[in-house]
Amino acid sequence: MIVDCAEYDQGARRPGRASLSDLGQRERGDGRFVWLGLFEPTAEEFSEVMDALGLHPLASEDAVEAHQRPKLEIYDGTLFLVLKTARYDDPTETVEFGELLIFVGADFIVVVRHGAASALAEVRAELEADPERLALGPAAVLHGILDRVVDDYAPVMAGIDDDIGEVEAAVFSDTPTNPVERIYKLKREVLGVHRALGPLVDPLHRLSSQPLPTVPPAVRSYFRDVEDHLVRVTEQNETNRDLLTSVLEANLTRVSVRQNEDMRKISAWVAMAAVPTLVAGVYGMNFDHMPELDWRFGYPAVLAAMAVICLTLFRYFRRSGWI
Amino acid sequence: MIVDCAEYDQGARRPGRASLSDLGQRERGDGRFVWLGLFEPTAEEFSEVMDALGLHPLASEDAVEAHQRPKLEIYDGTLFLVLKTARYDDPTETVEFGELLIFVGADFIVVVRHGAASALAEVRAELEADPERLALGPAAVLHGILDRVVDDYAPVMAGIDDDIGEVEAAVFSDTPTNPVERIYKLKREVLGVHRALGPLVDPLHRLSSQPLPTVPPAVRSYFRDVEDHLVRVTEQNETNRDLLTSVLEANLTRVSVRQNEDMRKISAWVAMAAVPTLVAGVYGMNFDHMPELDWRFGYPAVLAAMAVICLTLFRYFRRSGWI
Amino acid sequence: MIVDCAEYDQGARRPGRASLSDLGQRERGDGRFVWLGLFEPTAEEFSEVMDALGLHPLASEDAVEAHQRPKLEIYDGTLFLVLKTARYDDPTETVEFGELLIFVGADFIVVVRHGAASALAEVRAELEADPERLALGPAAVLHGILDRVVDDYAPVMAGIDDDIGEVEAAVFSDTPTNPVERIYKLKREVLGVHRALGPLVDPLHRLSSQPLPTVPPAVRSYFRDVEDHLVRVTEQNETNRDLLTSVLEANLTRVSVRQNEDMRKISAWVAMAAVPTLVAGVYGMNFDHMPELDWRFGYPAVLAAMAVICLTLFRYFRRSGWI
Amino acid sequence: MIVDCAEYDQGARRPGRASLSDLGQRERGDGRFVWLGLFEPTAEEFSEVMDALGLHPLASEDAVEAHQRPKLEIYDGTLFLVLKTARYDDPTETVEFGELLIFVGADFIVVVRHGAASALAEVRAELEADPERLALGPAAVLHGILDRVVDDYAPVMAGIDDDIGEVEAAVFSDTPTNPVERIYKLKREVLGVHRALGPLVDPLHRLSSQPLPTVPPAVRSYFRDVEDHLVRVTEQNETNRDLLTSVLEANLTRVSVRQNEDMRKISAWVAMAAVPTLVAGVYGMNFDHMPELDWRFGYPAVLAAMAVICLTLFRYFRRSGWI
Amino acid sequence: MIVDCAEYDQGARRPGRASLSDLGQRERGDGRFVWLGLFEPTAEEFSEVMDALGLHPLASEDAVEAHQRPKLEIYDGTLFLVLKTARYDDPTETVEFGELLIFVGADFIVVVRHGAASALAEVRAELEADPERLALGPAAVLHGILDRVVDDYAPVMAGIDDDIGEVEAAVFSDTPTNPVERIYKLKREVLGVHRALGPLVDPLHRLSSQPLPTVPPAVRSYFRDVEDHLVRVTEQNETNRDLLTSVLEANLTRVSVRQNEDMRKISAWVAMAAVPTLVAGVYGMNFDHMPELDWRFGYPAVLAAMAVICLTLFRYFRRSGWI
Ligand SMILES: [Mg+2]
Ligand SMILES: [Mg+2]
Ligand SMILES: [Mg+2]
Ligand SMILES: [Mg+2]
Ligand SMILES: [Mg+2]
Ligand SMILES: [Mg+2]
Ligand SMILES: [Mg+2]
Ligand SMILES: [Mg+2]
Ligand SMILES: [Mg+2]
Ligand SMILES: [Mg+2]
Ligand SMILES: [Mg+2]
Ligand SMILES: [Mg+2]
Ligand SMILES: [Mg+2]
Ligand SMILES: [Mg+2]
Ligand SMILES: [Mg+2]
Ligand SMILES: [Mg+2]
Ligand SMILES: [Mg+2]
Ligand SMILES: [Mg+2]
Ligand SMILES: [Mg+2]
Ligand SMILES: [Mg+2]
Ligand SMILES: [Mg+2]
Ligand SMILES: [Mg+2]
Ligand SMILES: [Mg+2]
Ligand SMILES: [Mg+2]
Ligand SMILES: [Mg+2]
Ligand SMILES: [Mg+2]
Ligand SMILES: [Mg+2]
Ligand SMILES: [Mg+2]
Ligand SMILES: [Mg+2]
Ligand SMILES: [Mg+2]
Ligand SMILES: [Mg+2]
Fold first, then answer.
1. Roughly how many angstroms between the first and final C-alpha of chain D, as a whole number?
2. Domain A255-320: which CATH number of 2.60.40.1220, 1.20.58.340, 3.20.20.70, 3.90.600.10
3. Smallest Cβ distance to A287: which of C75, C188, C299?
4. What is the pTM of this model?
5. What is the per-residue pLDDT across C278-304, written as a single tens digit (0 to 9) for each?
6. Cβ–Cβ contact E64 with C under 8 A
7. Ligand 6 centroid, distance to D292 Cα (angstroms)
8. pLDDT of residue C25
9. Which of B318, D260, D298, E274 lies 20 to 30 Å (CA to CA) from residue C304?
């Protein structure tokens, strides 16, 4: 599905939609380029684009099939970049990934979106409002998109950080919870983020440090800015991974302590019942000669003795922190 | 055992089987090559091939013995590639590996298969249906085989992912299972995959980025496509390895919690029996003066008291989540 | 907010404050430079500086927003360095980070501070007292600041070391404590330090080993001295990370041992009560013919037997170390 | 002790033993070299060799003292290679290491053996039976020895693999064993293998890929074959290391589960005794008015009730899997 | 404090002590150099040396302050090497570190020692007894010192190995010990050794493989010999680190098994008492019609039954390995 298709001349949008059939004209001179946005195109839809712009069949296959790992490739002067978009769904504590596959030529940029992606329409609007930046050509568009996608990783990390904070609170709280499943699922998400974002560092580094076709030197330090933000995000993710490993171990300690405390408490109560039971057993014996049995206050005295024993044990257990 | 042996001319199969004795002719000009497929050849069978094509004795030894790690070697203009094929046997949750040992010369490709391999006959059929691709020579055949083998890794990963999902469900379910053996065996498989697939990344990288004999530049980006898929598979495998480590730890927590719950439950019931037992012991004492014993409703009153005590304890334990 | 702004000529401070409007004059010859210190400037405040000195907009954006990871960038002959300052708050056992963003040109140095930073006023005073060093230009100022910031990491490490020592003492003491939360929180801080300090090693290495604009060779070995100290701090931090992992595991062992000892103790007491209870039960049976019941000293004999049994058990348990 | 010393001319052994005093003659032309084998020589014995062949004193010191890590050094045109031989002692499940220290010059090879080594006499016999290979000079001898030593690592790995298999079977069997000590000792062996074999990879890589004195290019791919085998062994060792870590954790889970099952079983039986004990206590009370006591079939009824209670509990516990 | 100061000419010590004031003369020709040994000099003492020899102020600061990490620096033709000396204190199982800071110029070597160091006086004596070696100049002295310091690491490793052996024996012995604290403290020492020795590998590698001022090529292979020994020590240390991690985990398993055995034993005894208690309770009931009570041998029969029950349980528990 074509989302938008426009031609820009010296940074200004030419009125109306450019049609796919114009793409092949290839007569655009300096400062003119086409920006085509597609959403999950079929192989048929895309083959038209591919033919018009002379895209490499392998990259085109990827654009239609998606499910690629982030990468940057160069096919005869055309850059082909794959990256993941991410969104955090806080209620289920899962990260949803989309995919962008971008072709950048001297006079065109084709952006294929799969799944939930960042708000690319806003990027287009922002760039159209800044003709000077747009006049730098397709690389400026590429930067605009990358900057947005990487900025959109920040709320994902914030959401995960938040939930790790909640999990830590649960682990170290006094209420007997066992968030082991939640910890594990968060770790799973963190590993997913690692797999989706990690491989993008290298492409961004190449964009920001190597001379590449279609990327004017002036744009390079802009890519370095994006690279910075991405590296920060990936480092935070590594920290989270480490924290979740530790919190899993800390949780095991807490859970085991809490349960042993329960067992100890019950055992202490049983022990407190055992002694008076023994005393009662003694005076339940049927010996002929048990002088205490004949005493007038034998019974209350024994009851009192039982109470004293229990109380003494109770205070001892309390002092030991067992009850 | 010879599986198939054919000569191709400008991408078209020449009728009939080529015989081994033709191999040595070496009079093929541009665009002609032989594709020989062998299955677990004996040393005798293979020495004939080796002599006809002038293969290096060390590589030939490997081809007969198999059990090599994946590697790419170059012996005087001949590429020698070793790789593992993989198949997931879901009922036993084990990965079965086969081995391919491939010699690629300017005008021949020899494919030696050991164990269960990918469907190479299909690759041959597909390529024969695409003469243009086949006309690129032996390197195109090599790509066709590699693409298939690496594509066949995907169902292996899917099968393992699936089983990890089942294991996670078991660990976090409420029924008291202990899938520790299954987790461990999956980890063993994941380590096996790591060892079988990991060393192939470097040969594929060299095929996709370095000028190598017998590999025309036009084929190189096709190898990069295969490399991409392989790297994705190996990264997924690393994630699985990490997940299985975490799920083993999470399982320990769950198992220990579940068992402590059982113990606590039994202990709580024992504690509930201990108090009325004590009361009964008290009224079993043989003191002469125990006024309660003479009361008309002493017995039912004590029974009622016991019931109240038990009920109170029961409600307390229930509220604490112990029963 | 402007903290201080002065012009230096051959290492000597020119009287009074330099005004921002002077910055743009750019007529300073050899040995003259301006040192401008800012605290959390607004975008408006900073845009004036940026225009006067021709700073790159991306670096300027960072300077205003902060929350960057440490890095060194070069924009047309201007160095841009980001680094973290650190302070250990011992009562809460947390590390507080500030941020410095520094622009170094041929004739200026701009230092932007965010959050609690090291005592930069002292650095200025020390340098003004040493005109020879100051005469080396902005790079000498950069070194003075870096040296101070990195020296200020030492008390942070000392504080954490200290607290790890306390935690170790708690884990291996005989009093029943469980410092699992404290261990975990220290690990969290250590990971935070890793993230804040680790990325600074590379910029310092480049300052100390590569020819960079605005850094005269004579200053380079001074940066190596700072790099040394930084590497020592980061290695200590890695050791602490490892220690905390081990102490968490050791704590689990200790806690579990301590609790099992409690359980064993209670169980032993219960076992000691069980045997006399059984004896009492035996003599509470109502058989017609139980000769012991008629004995004159049956009752005291049984009591004595009970005492002997309990004492024997007690001595056995004590010898086994269970009580 | 001199094991054997022979001179070879064009691959053929010259009759008899060469004497040490011949070594220094240095008049051998092309295709003649001496192969000297020594077993744990004393410093005196070796100094004679050293002087005759002009070996470097440091290497000579190593040859006498042994206990070196594997390494390859070049002293003025002489290769000096140190490597470990390994043998698995299955009954004690330990790996025994020997050491070979080899000097390779243009016209000599000196092999010093310490401890139990591979069967070098067989290597000599094999090579003497293949004069063509031997005619390649000392490097061919070096290859023959390395090939044998590395091939001898395979049974070591097989033995360890085997024992890991036995340990896994023990961990996951239903009989209550705790092979923690065996797991740990195997891990110790695996770490020992890592230390003994790991450092040899680099020397073999240099032998197989760099031009080195005394190694003709034709021999280089033979060293690559040995390198392949060595890398396979070291990767297998890494896998084993990983497996033993996991099996240790899995064993902890199994042991803890098995013991909790025992505890639960005993507790369940105690609980089953507690309820009829309570009932007996109730009817042991001495109240005047307990109508059941007068019933004709009160006693058998109560006995039956006790049996029913026990049976019900028994079936409940059995259904819960506690007994 | 000056320990010794001597001038050497062609390897021979010139009579008497050289005075500090001679140092600055700088008229020594080929084959003459001064070897100055200092122990924890004050800033004042050292500034004299620094001025006389033209040492760099930063290195001089390090020499006085010490607490540096091992490193090698070159300041205008002067080598500056920092390294740690180590000594194992077996009773406390701690490693004590000292520090050497060495300046090597064309005609001088200055050795500053902090804390307990290796026996440098012996090194001097050995070298003075070997004038040929000493005639190689300051680099030969540097080698002599490094060789001694690194050789002195061996007993440290031996001591730690030993104590790990003792710890293993304790973990796997049948006596109920819990050496968790000792394991942890050994790990702490091993991490300390890692930090003190690890950074020295790179300086030694540079000394043994790069052309450096003041190091004649003939001495380089001697440094490689020292490097070998150092690498062996660091690898052994890594193995120990790994072993201690595993032994900590194995200890947890052993401790938990041993304690559960105790609990199981006590529980089994309690269970053995519970059944006869129940029987006694039954015959303590007050039913009018309990025929057994009237039997002549009811009482001994019940006692016998109790004994049989206990014995049966005892044999069952013994067979299960619970008692
Ligand atoms: Mg951004
Ligand atoms: Mg931005
Ligand atoms: Mg949340
Ligand atoms: Mg949430
Ligand atoms: Mg930025
Ligand atoms: Mg594919
Ligand atoms: Mg494909
Ligand atoms: Mg399945
Ligand atoms: Mg399945
Ligand atoms: Mg693809
Ligand atoms: Mg663990
Ligand atoms: Mg504190
Ligand atoms: Mg400093
Ligand atoms: Mg503190
Ligand atoms: Mg404190
Ligand atoms: Mg310093
Ligand atoms: Mg300093
Ligand atoms: Mg653990
Ligand atoms: Mg071999
Ligand atoms: Mg072989
Ligand atoms: Mg075996
Ligand atoms: Mg065995
Ligand atoms: Mg081979
Ligand atoms: Mg564990
Ligand atoms: Mg437990
Ligand atoms: Mg030495
Ligand atoms: Mg010792
Ligand atoms: Mg000791
Ligand atoms: Mg040596
Ligand atoms: Mg030596
Ligand atoms: Mg662990």
1. 68
2. 1.20.58.340
3. C299
4. 0.85
5. 999 889 999 888 888 888 888 999 999
6. no
7. 85
8. 64
9. E274
